[in-house]
Amino acid sequence: MQDHPPGGEGRQSGWHGTTIIMVKKDGRTVIGGDGQVSIGQTIVKGNAKKVRRLAKGEVIGGFAGATADAFTLFERLESKLEQYPGQLMRACVELAKDWRTDRYLRRLEAMMLVADKEAALVLTGTGDVLEPEAAERGSVMGIGSGGNYALAAGRALLATDMDAEAIARRALQIASEICVYTNANHVLESIASK
Q1: DSSP 133
Q2: Which residue has the higher pLDDT, 95 or 22?
Q3: pTM (predicted TM-score)
Q4: Cα 83–79–29 angle (5° rounding)?
Q5: How far is C-alpha 108 from the geometric centre of its chain's CA atoms?
Q6: Distance CA 68, CA 94 (A)
Q7: How does pLDDT run across 97-125, given as a tens digit for each residue?
Q8: Residue 98, SS3?
């Protein structure tokens, strides 16, 4: 029997791990992620880019899970954003409906964090489209095998004077020091938020 990381994919030979964090604070939303890709106990790549811009730069997103599955979901989200320009929430709800009902998409093993100037959302294959819980000074959400470590660190750092990008970087660093499926090669994207 093979062990799988918390929040990791359940495939026997699956690509495991990552940490993706979203921090929203003081009019800025940042999504950051590490670059590690592992198969079982082996690191096969240390600089994968799991965070990117979508919709001509108006949306930022990051994924945790099977790489090919996540790319498929990014493509589907891009097409939904073309159908519903400037309506990230609606595009995500439509994607989540397809994800739950389409036989092919139901097999995809990934989670996504996405944001534009108005919304910051978590998307899952179970049909969830969730906004992170807002705290007094902002909000944080983490996904992937190191997501809970980054989430805890990010929530603690919200109370400091650090900005959203500094919080995301530090939370990813902390996660990489705890989670063996997370490394210190970080990619961050940010967007102004309301």
Answers
A1: P
A2: 22
A3: 0.88
A4: 95
A5: 15
A6: 20
A7: 887 777 666 667 778 999 999 999 999 87
A8: helix
Q: From the candidates 18, 19, 29, 182, which is the catalytic residue?
A: 18
- Which residue is it, tokens 């096969």? 44
Q: Phi and psi at residue 171, in whole multiples of 5°?
A: -65, -40
pLDDT of 13 > 60? The answer is no
Phi/psi for 27 (5° steps) reads 75, 20
The yes-or-no answer on residue 18 being catalytic is: yes
Q: In a 3-state reduction of DSSP, which class is residue 192?
A: strand
Residue 191 CA neighbour count, 13 Å, CB half: 23
Token code pair at residue 190: 């940010």
Residue 16 gets which letter from DSSP?
Answer: E
**What is the per-residue burial (b if ≥16 Cβ within 10 Å, else e) of 7-19?**
bbbeeeebbbbbb
> What's the rounded Cα separation, in Å, for the pair 12 and 161?
43
| C-alpha–C-alpha distance, residues 55 and 144, integer Å | 24
